[in-house]
Amino acid sequence: MGLEKIVGSREYRIVRLIADGGMGSVYQAQQLGNAGFSKTVAIKTILDLFAADEEFVRLFIGEAKLVADLVHENIVQVYDLGLSEGRYFIVMEYVEGITLEAFVRMHLDEEMPLPAELGAFIGSRVCRGLEYAHRRTDCDGRPLGIVHRDISPKNILLNFEGVVKITDFGIAKAREVMEQDEELLAGRLEYMPPEQAARKPTDGRSDLYALGVVTHELLTGKQPSQGTVSLLRLHQLGTTSFPSPIQEVRPDLPEDLAAIVDRALQPDPADRFQSASEMGYALEYHLYHEGYGPTNVTLGEYLRKHFPYAAERTQKSLRPRRHTPDFLVLQRAETIFGNRLEEE
After folding, report:
1. Could you read off the pLDDT of 83-128 as tens digits, one per residue?
2. What is the CATH topology of the domain spanning 97-297?
3. How would residue 230 be classed by pLDDT, with cut points 50, 70 and 90?
4. Which of 140, 150, 203, 268 is catalytic?
5. How would you classify residue 187: left for phi > 0, otherwise alpha for psi between -120 and 50, otherwise beta?
6. Same fold across 5-94+308-318 and 97-297
7. How far is CA 142 from the centre of its chain?
8. CA–CA separation, 339 vs 333, rounded Å?
9. Is 150 among the catalytic positions?
10. What residues form DSSP beta bridges with 248?
């Protein structure tokens, strides 16, 4: 029998497995309280293999501490860090939606071009979430220096109301919040900025490079560079560049939008946008300077139209079930937070 219940400082009843990854699992659960109180949440756990790894556990705890006070529409909120039977778990906001990775893959599978304005809108919302995280200070007003360091399509969620959310700060760094060593090479290489791959200091501009790669893929269906071994070598030499402008891949892109993506992909941080706010403003100016542009409502309607099965499945999972025993429902399907899982 699968996991049924987690009891820490609060009790959580497991509803279903959302995703099973290489280092842990994510579940949909119900947080239980007095007088029949119940709240839908997501719970991230650590696999037994890593539960005894002090470094991995430190990063896991650090993620919860780092994100605990990040309360923003475009960031998945963390509610609690718990301990059950000697294993830590993180309680997070449950997102009814899909990953950006699934969003891109659907367009490729259906040979559908992504509307450029929706791609720009998604990028602008990620910028606003990053801007908030990058600017966070401690109680004394000192910058925390938060850098996500793993912006990728797997870590960007789209809910069915059209809200874009950044998740998984598992390898993020912050001054004095996590004693994260810059020598640790972690993250997805294909989205990694040169300075991070070369184990040099990172800052908010590093996240903007990764977002540039994501936006390029979002708008064209292709990453700006292929081949991780050669990419790593170029990164280490500090010579990575993408000489081909994005318009060579998708000529119909507006020139100002193409210029934004090309600037974000500059190998030298000094040549990129200098803040998420600056990049977000550039995207928003492109979207709205002539009048009406896409909103959360626009994106939500687009998602419900093109992902009707996912939207219906998510709603069914949230409905109260009567006369249902308290066990894990093995509904293994592609949802948020992870890889495709085989149907049982």
Report:
1. 888 888 889 999 999 999 999 999 999 988 889 999 999 999 999 9
2. Transferase(Phosphotransferase); domain 1 (1.10.510)
3. low
4. 150
5. left
6. no
7. 26
8. 9
9. yes
10. none
